Amino acid sequence: MDFCGVNQLKVGIVGCGHLGQGIALSLIQNGFPKEKLMLSYRGNPATYQQLEEKGLVSCLCENQTILEQADILFITIKPQDIMSMEGNRAAKDALIVSCAAGLPISLLQKVFSAERIYRMMLSGPDTILEGKGVAAIYPEQEVLAGLLNQMRVQKIPLSGEGDLNAFSAAVCLPAAMLQESDPEKIQAGVCAIGKEYPLFLDLYDWAKQVRPSLRTQEEIDAYIAKMATKGGITEAIVNSLKRQEPFADALHKGIERGIEISSAVQSSLK
Ligand SMILES: NC(=O)c1ccc[n+]([C@@H]2O[C@H](COP(=O)([O-])OP(=O)(O)OC[C@H]3O[C@@H](n4cnc5c(N)ncnc54)[C@H](OP(=O)(O)O)[C@@H]3O)[C@@H](O)[C@H]2O)c1
């Protein structure tokens, strides 16, 4: 199967945790040749076990090999870990695609000493694997858009890089709408934040469709733990809701968390 013309290319995924595994499995499910997939992680035995269970161990490589050989390189490590990539150089024509929340292109260019850097923000791995994912790319890139299309991930247009902080919080709506069960509070919160950030209004219908129907708090906690990055945006939103803060405030906390992560990483780069 021709994978939107890129089946001859090698795809690397640096940091195969929750999101990285979701992208890898989605690519394979949708016809991308497994032998052209290169994956890495940092050495956590629990991650190795997950990769083994998902049949992905044969794709494991050192970061250095991925950087040297991959044509498209997804960076799916936590933003707080990005400095572990400093000084690593990818192949000259490689597309480097950061999926890390909050890290601007200008910072990524310094970390990787490269120009061809893109950002891609995706919804949680479960939505991607069910063919119900959404994503945004900045700046627009044709090959990446084709890849998303093949993965059956809906691409949402952005008006600029600045939209990515709001988009990163808006893809957490399904988790937030599990934590807050009152539909009126949710609706009012989305309308309030949507006045400032229309992306929340754009993604509200999608979130209603993909939110799983879970009954107990244990089921909800387990679902959120699977999709939330530790110290990340979903966690900030859910923790705010656990403190009984209004829905719109919790979503604002998610946007603020993205900005905080970005500032912390920028200052560690100086
Ligand atoms: N989870 C989501 O729904 C979601 C959605 C959109 C965007 N994101 C973004 O995706 C990124 C990852 O989130 P996640 O939830 O997938 O986090 P995660 O489960 O903690 O995965 C991060 C992975 O990165 C690996 N890693 C860290 N440093 C590395 C290095 N130098 N080289 C190779 N691998 C390295 C870790 O390896 P070990 O396991 O060995 O420690 C871990 O497997 C974050 O930046 C987040 O903002 C996540």
Report on this structure.
This protein has 270 residues and is of the alpha/beta class. It has 13 helices and seven strands. It has a seven-stranded mixed β-sheet, sandwiched between helices. Helix 7 (163-170) packs across helix 13 and helix 9 (183-196) runs antiparallel to helix 10. The longest helix is centred in the C-terminal third of the chain and has 23 residues, at 247-269. It is globular. The relative contact order is 0.13.
Topology of this structure?
Blueprint lengths: L10 E4 L3 H12 L7 E4 L4 H9 L9 H7 L2 E4 L19 E4 L6 H8 L4 E6 L2 H5 L4 E5 L3 H9 L3 E2 L7 H8 L2 H7 L3 H14 L2 H12 L6 H11 L5 H10 L4 H23 L1
Parallel strand pairs: 1-2, 1-3, 3-4, 4-5, 6-7
Antiparallel strand pairs: 5-6
Helix pairs in contact: 7-10, 7-13, 9-10, 9-13, 12-13
The structure holds NADP nicotinamide-adenine-dinucleotide phosphate.
